[in-house]
Amino acid sequence: MTPFEQYGKLHVEGKNLVDASGKPVVLKGISTHNLNEYPDYVNEAAFKQFRDEYNVNIMRLAMYAAFADNNPGYADSDDEHRAKLEELILKGVKICADLGLYCLVDWHILFDYNPNMHTDMAIRFFKNIAPKLKDYDNVIYEICNEPNMNMETKEETTWEDVKRYANQVIPEIKNIDHEKVIIVGTPTWSQRVDTASDSPLEYDNIMYALHFYADTHRDKLRDICKYARSKNLPIFVTEFGVGRADGDGDINDEESAKWLDLLDSEKISRVIWNLSNKNETSSILVPSCTKTYGFAEEDLTECGKRMKSIMSRM
Fold first, then answer.
1. DSSP string, 247-303
2. Above 80 in pLDDT, residue 71?
3. pLDDT tier at 68 (50, 70, 90 boundaries)?
4. What is the DSSP letter of 87?
5. Burial 192-205 (b: 16+ CB within 10 A, else e)
6. What's the number of domains the chain is made of?
């Protein structure tokens, strides 16, 4: 039985993501890295291996809205490239559907620190992609990955900024497809679920993103998570790592275990970062691995090896 056959179409009830019969569901999966840089990992053989060998039940497709240097994202590229990115998203969703996996479609803001910088392009993307994905009941939308701050001026994106953006984008999606679960990022690189819990959005089937990297984010952020859950906020950890917040550094098994224990106790879904061979701690593949599927033990980084055991929890 595939994950989708087991759980069916998902929705939000209270603070939980639940299956078609209303029982809480915990999704566990892997995020791609930037699809502009690593499109070849979106293939059926890789996703099938993650499902069958690693107990993954969701894949996250990270489509950067904007990027640095000479590698533009959706918002800062031309129409031809945007069409290719949309085709890649559709390909990934179809692969997941065929394998009975859930698929998280991620409008991945990062360098464009405030989602309002590209509201028009976000609306364009979701208005283009939502009609094509309306019949795919395995899809979840993530509309702003990590609202953060201008690194030069130190101007922070606030929850009010995020709400202003969400109140423009969410209705556009719901006008096309009102049933899908939508995840909204929170300020400070998707850490301030407490501010979201104090002033949540007024829509059905909405969840809020919490991101953590175990060697950086410890008791203080776990306390924020607990506070938000005490106020019945539906949280989805759409990105986490076992090392530092910059994606590198040492793996911290002790802090990772504390986080996973909390997620398990709260029945919070989680997606680990990242599927690539980039030379950093958070990549699950070693830099020398040129495969895009058929991964063996020697192809996995220390993060990748831990990922296998993390996905087997519960």
1. S-S---HHHHHHHHHHHHHHT--EEEEEES--SSTT-SB-TT---SS---GGGB-HH
2. no
3. low
4. H
5. bbbbbbeebeebeb
6. 1
> Which residues belong to the active site?
146, 239
CB atoms near residue 157 (< 10 Å): 26
Q: Can you read off the two tokens belonging to residue 186?
A: 């929170």
What number of other Cβ atoms are within 10 A of residue 34's Cβ? 18
Residue 112: CATH number of its domain: 3.20.20.80
Q: How far apart are CA 94 and CA 202, in angstroms?
A: 31
Percentage of the residues of the chain whose pLDDT score is greater than 70:
99
Q: Is the pTM of this model over 0.85?
A: yes
- pLDDT at 287 exceeding the cut of 70: yes
Token pair listed for 267:
């029945």
Domain span at residue 227 reads: 3-311
| 228 alpha-carbon distance from chain centroid | 19
The overall average pLDDT reported for the chain is 96
User: What phi and psi, each to the nearest 5 degrees, are found at residue 236?
Assistant: -130, 120
Tokens coding 297 = 């033990």
